Amino acid sequence: MLDKIALNTKLKVNQNLIDDLFSKKILRYNPYKDGFSRQYYFGNKPEKSPYFISSGRSTRFNMSGVQTRLEVNPKHFSSYQNLINFLQQALLHYDPHQLLLTRLDFKADVPIPFSSVLQQAYRPGVHSFIGFFSEKGVISELVLGINPKAKIYDALERHGQAYSQRPLAAPQAASNPPLQGLTRFEVSLIPKGSIRLPIASFAELPDLLNFNPFTFYKFAKVRVPAANLSNSDHIKADHLLRIARDSKFGGMQMAKSYARHHFSKRRQKDFDQFFEIVSPPNLFGIYQADLRTFLSSDSYQPQNIGGIFT
Prior knowledge:
Among the domains are: 1-98, no CATH class; 218-277, no CATH class. It contains 8 helices and 15 strands. It has helices spanning 15-23, 80-90, 114-118, 155-159, 171-174, 231-245, 251-262, 283-295, and strands spanning 2-9, 27-33, 36-42, 51-58, 68-72, 100-110, 121-122, 129-133, 139-144, 149-154, 183-189, 218-222, 275-277, 304-305, 308-309. Helix 6 runs antiparallel to helix 7. The chain is elongated and about 75 Å long. Mean pLDDT is 84; it is low at 170-176.
């Protein structure tokens, strides 16, 4: 499913609607956000708002003629049609081809305990990563890379057990509630440098059904090689195994990093013998099923999204 969409456009915001919602204290605003004079949001806490609408004179986008910037989280909308209806009201003269994408976030929720994922998931080519610890003293979130940013975290740890009761695209999740574990995989794309988005405008959003954003997630397990290795290599293999299995160290990502830095160049050719590729969870299938449901007209139901009826 899509987790966040950011749009820049030359279209003007429906200021009469925004002013009305602001006068009723339904909307609040942050001043001078992202170069705009005002960024409007719903509710008391910006981080929980289903949308952000930035308008007014922009010191950052003036040269390109950008009048409005919108950020929406599709999880707050029942369907694609609800999101379209929202944009039609928030903007004057709605035209999806003039809504240019500046960020796309993707997500897939997998009914596997995070501790199990940590032992196997990694991102090749990432030399640095960040691990966040839970109150239990174990890693509950990994951030792998900058752009594209890959994030894996324990969804039950963050959102609570009630989060696991909602319907999931994964068929095995529905047959065995409540879930014993739930792991969120996220990918964030921002067009910068060599990074390009798979689509250019909001009008192309349905084309994302055919785009797999999770291809750089890989899965492996540590294996102890044959007995003809030296004692030193057996010690290294044992250490790799403990790193991958210990949720306080960083799992497979740390094991790969350790192997890369501690094997001599002469033995790099033997690197792969310590790891065995395993079948990954069907991240793309889960993402596709959720997005297909969102795009379906059958999912539409009237909603009040932050004071805007869709």
